[in-house]
Amino acid sequence: MSADARLKVVLCWHMHQPQYRDLVRGTYQLPWTYLHAIKDYVDMAAHLEAVPGARAVINFAPILLEQIEDYAEQVGAFLSEGVEIRDPLLAALAGPELPADTDARRELVNACLRANRTRLIDRFPAYRQLARFAECMGDAAEGVEYLSDRYLADLLVWYHLAWMGETVRRRDTRIKRLQNKGPGFTVADRRLLVSVIGEQLAGIIGRYRSLADRGRVELSVSPYAHPIIPLLLDI
Hints:
mainly alpha
């Protein structure tokens, strides 16, 4: 096939999340922005950095960039000044005290089960065991009350370890150490994990900017709060 006859293909990676913040209270209703940031957005940057000849167009929804920056600032403020994080799930991982209220504990357990069964839960034996135990307890109040703070802490840590980007998991010795530790995560372990999460959130936008400055990617943005650009391609 001659060079002129080759099909020209543009790889366009669209990164999107809708607005999850309560604009009155500033709290997050769902954790998907920071979870996808530490997994998918971090890994994509790492893959592009690892292949000098790779070229792609990276498209961001502006509301996603705002939320990533907000999360990075919140984690930084928590680590430096103890300011409470305004995402219930991340705050539970970070804070020394776990909720005592039965409904709050039930919601925390349910939140830590919102993950792909095959790719995230069953992949890690410790996480799989914790998830199965929670499923056996069900939503009954007496079942939730039976779960100890140690169990909740372990479930929180493994949920976030499972969501961590594969490139971070392979390279970061702190993540390797936490994965190899087993049960009984301490407050210090949880704070360490929050630190790693904060580093990933604080660095992700700059990594794509650096790739663009070197001519490795072209950056584009979709309308401010538009999370469904891929669906429009079928119209």
